[in-house]
Amino acid sequence: MRALSAFCLAMLLVASAAAQTYPSRPVRIVIPLSPGGTTDVPGRIIAQKLSESLGQQFFVENRAGAGGTIGTDYVAKAKPDGYTLLLTASPFVIAPHVYKTMPYDTLADFAPVIRIATGPYVLVVHPSLGVNSVKELIAAAKKEPGKIDFASSGNGGAQHLVTELFMYMAGIKLNHVPYKGSGPAQQDLMSGIIKVSFVGTPIAIPHMKSGRLKALGVSTATRSPEIPEVPTIAEAGVPGYEAIVWIGLLAPAGTPRDIVAKLNGEIGKLVRADEVKKLIAPTGMEPDPDTPAQFGAYLKGDYDKWGKVVRDSGATVQ
Question: What are the residue ranges of helices labelled H in the chain?
């Protein structure tokens, strides 16, 4: 027992010493999604600011593919020493429900570090559809079930599932048109080939101003400060509807708690700074930091929520 106690104490001291000197070399932040997106831009801002504040380089490495599972799997199998981290988003908790097999356990193989920011999707329509509100869209869809097309970046993705949740709660049926990526989907939406979609605020705002798209509602429980004139979907006709875009940082399971706590504290301080808030704002996201325990509970709740949406909708990856 004395030997075991001594060993445990030694391990605690080693972990504490590691956290005090962390980071002592460059840190890789893996983003399992394509460059330039809603996750990538804030991720690079955070990496730069961490490099400045902690005195070691934090660099971003994009490992996109298979709904984010390729990069996520890489981090799941990395050494849990704080030098390989995962900066991910909502697809993290969606992918395990739409893929038949997964190379990692979504909840067990990661240590939550911090939720960094959250934001809304915007429900937009092409003006040629002739609707001006959520209630009018619901009425049009009920009049012609399955006749109005909606676009997504692919089967089982976030755009697909937030629309499935909307249809389920509104009691309507729209026709899903999945694209291979958000770019082609946006092009057909702008041209009026597709009439409806949920998009991020950076896409919605300029096209709202130009009149090429109409915004009917935001998916969050409160209005977006970027477009406060647009009501929430819940207040505009679908009570209780909520779908949040989030980005957060995770580490491989087994990463020392002191290192997780150090990263949480440093990132929380950074994202609360006015400079970083201004840098992140154009992405449509607002800083929303929490503790590792709170982030873990949030992930579990989001995992369960989207699992139910997938089961109810029958969404799969072809």
Answer: 2-21, 40-54, 69-76, 91-98, 134-143, 158-170, 182-191, 201-210, 233-236, 257-272, 274-280, 292-313
| Contacts with 195 (C-beta within 8 Å, 6 or more apart), sequence order | 125, 126, 128, 129, 148, 149, 150, 189
Domains of the chain: 2-118+246-313 (3.40.190.150), 120-236 (3.40.190.10)
Nearest Cα to Cα of residue 299 among 159, 124, 92, 70: 92
Distance (Å, whole) CA 46 – CA 54: 12
Give me the residue label for tokens 């040629």. 128
pLDDT tens-digit map of 12-35: 555 555 667 999 999 999 999 888
Q: Phi/psi at 36 (nearest 5 deg)?
A: 85, 0
User: From CA 36, how far away is CA 244, in angstroms rounded?
Assistant: 20
Please give the structure tokens belonging to residue 179: 């694209």
- Kindly report the pTM of this predicted structure: 0.87
- Quickly tell me which residue has 């997780």 as its tokens: 260
State yes or no: pLDDT of 9 exceeds 90: no
Q: For residue range 75-103, what is the model confidence (pLDDT) as tens digits? A: 999 999 999 999 999 989 999 998 889 99
Tokens standing for 109?
A: 């193989």
Report pLDDT digits (tens) over 210-246: 999 999 999 999 999 889 999 999 999 999 999 999 9
- Residue 244 pairs in a beta bridge with 120
From CA 180, how far away is CA 300, in angstroms rounded? 29
CA dist 266 and 58 (Å) reads: 13
3-class secondary-structure state, position 220: coil
Query: How far are the Cα atoms of 69, 92, 192, 217 from residue 245, in angstroms, in the given order?
Result: 18, 11, 25, 15
* Residue 157 to residue 200: CA distance in whole angstroms: 14
